[in-house]
Design brief:
Elements: E1 12-17, H1 21-33, E2 37-44, H2 47-57, E3 60-63, H3 65-69, E4 76-79, H4 83-95, E5 99-103, H5 110-123, E6 127-130, H6 137-147, E7 154-162, H7 181-197, E8 202-211, E9 216-225, E10 232-238, E11 244-251, E12 255-258, E13 271-276, E14 279-284, H8 290-306, H9 320-336, E15 337-341
Parallel strand pairs: 1-2, 1-4, 2-3, 4-5, 5-6, 7-10, 8-15
Antiparallel strand pairs: 7-11, 8-9, 9-10, 11-12, 12-13, 13-14
Amino acid sequence: MNAGHTETVRALRIGVAGCADIALRRMLPAFAASPHTEPTAVASRSSEKARAAAETFGCAAVEGYDALLERPDVDAVYIPLPVALHAPWTERALRAGKHVLAEKPLTARAADTARLLDLARERGLVLAENYLFVHHSAYTAVRDLVDAGAIGDVRALSASFTIPPRSADDIRYRADLDGGALLDIGVYPLRLASLLLGSELRVRGAVLRHDTVRGVDLGGSALLGDPGTGVSAQLVFGMEHAYTAGWRLLGSEGSLTLARAYSPPAGHRPVLRIERPDGTEERILPAHDQATAAVAAFAEAVRRAGQGAGQDKGRSSGDAAAVLRQAELVDAVRQAAHLVKI
């Protein structure tokens, strides 16, 4: 290599499979703004929807998802489709040689998640699950405080994510699309619990309010515990509630509390409340665009995979172990749940 030569890394070319709200509102703007990615095509079953999105972001419009997977100018596919469609289209994308960033949850069942992670590993591809909040810098601040002993030894987490009822035709109410509160909303506090309390959590009990007419759960709660340490998590979720999106982490000497914990706007400055015996502090943290951070992390995982790095105990990169743990926790909540039929 000549002295002074700088290797140019080509931006990861992204194809978007679907025009869901999160794709148009958060992810396509993040793909377009990032120096690491370039949206090259947007696909929809509706050519009109595809054209409208493509014009906004200066990329090609594609009718149908199979046609998107056939394009040579797509290195990776972002999948924001309804949950029931994640597994089949993720598999097709991987078999077409594309890296995949799938909206959460990656699939509705742990067995499907494990199978797809294995397929990605076998093909040397990245398969990642798009929980944006884990990339927010607020959680780096939280980990730093906990590690520094700001609240003593961690004892318990209480967290909730609840939203008001949606319109009657909302896909969250469709059992055939794997709708329901657990898969759409409850997965957030479950992922949070693993993030803050570690990977040894087990589900000790759960309740799900089940709508017998629509065939989906409307809300529920779960109790998790670490069998080795006794640390526990009490989680509440639902879509028939007042809006909440926060948590409190309780320690032996204090607590940390955060609101707007899962999907804050890019310009929002989180307020982390620190309570200790000697007083209370409200620390205003920097604003951070978690979608941009998630895009950068995905692009970096793909870059490292291309160099033969980032393998996680034989599975694909993209923190596959955490993806599988999350899927297993969701399965465990279903299995442990007392169903309240309404």
